[in-house]
């Protein structure tokens, strides 16, 4: 049995018509139900991140899960997730929204660090 036929046979739950289109719709709905944020919440998060970066306050990648969790607090208590999303969610979020760009910031040269910090700590 070829791969497509096997996927069609194994992946069709009861009540879903036996066709590739129905299977694709079912998988899409299942994937959407498993998303951490709803589509409008995700769109609001992207707009917020872009707006903050336009004002000169870029959002660090490590803070994006906390922002997403904060967005979910607007939901009813029964529909809220208990934890913020995992790091893998952040990677997938960035892949879904290529407009968000990540910048790699290099470490400060140690010689410059010593020249800037030493007089301040000595004072």
Automatic annotation (TrEMBL):
Protein name: HTH CENPB-type domain-containing protein
Spans traversing the lipid bilayer: none
GO MF: DNA binding
Species this chain originates from: Karstenula rhodostoma CBS 690.94
DNA-binding as UniProt keyword: yes
Domain HTH CENPB-type: 29-103
PROSITE patterns: HTH_CENPB (PS51253)
Source species taxonomy: Eukaryota, Fungi, Dikarya, Ascomycota, Pezizomycotina
InterPro entries registered for this protein in UniProt: HTH_CenpB_DNA-bd_dom
Keyword DNA-binding in annotation: yes
Keyword terms, alphabetized: DNA-binding
Superkingdom of source: Eukaryota
């Amino acid at each position: 049995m070829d791969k497509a036929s096997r996927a069609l046979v194994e992946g069709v739950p009861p009540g879903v018509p036996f066709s590739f289109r129905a299977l694709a719709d079912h998988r899409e709905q299942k994937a959407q139900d498993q998303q951490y944020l709803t589509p409008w919440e995700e769109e609001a998060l992207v707009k917020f991140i872009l707006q903050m970066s336009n004002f000169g306050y870029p959002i660090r990648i490590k803070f994006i899960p906390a922002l997403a969790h904060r967005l979910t607090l607007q939901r009813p208590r029964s529909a809220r997730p208990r934890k913020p999303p995992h790091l893998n969610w952040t990677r997938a979020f960035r892949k879904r929204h290529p407009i968000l760009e990540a910048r790699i910031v290099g470490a400060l040269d140690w010689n410059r660090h010593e020249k800037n910090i030493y007089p301040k700590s000595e004072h």
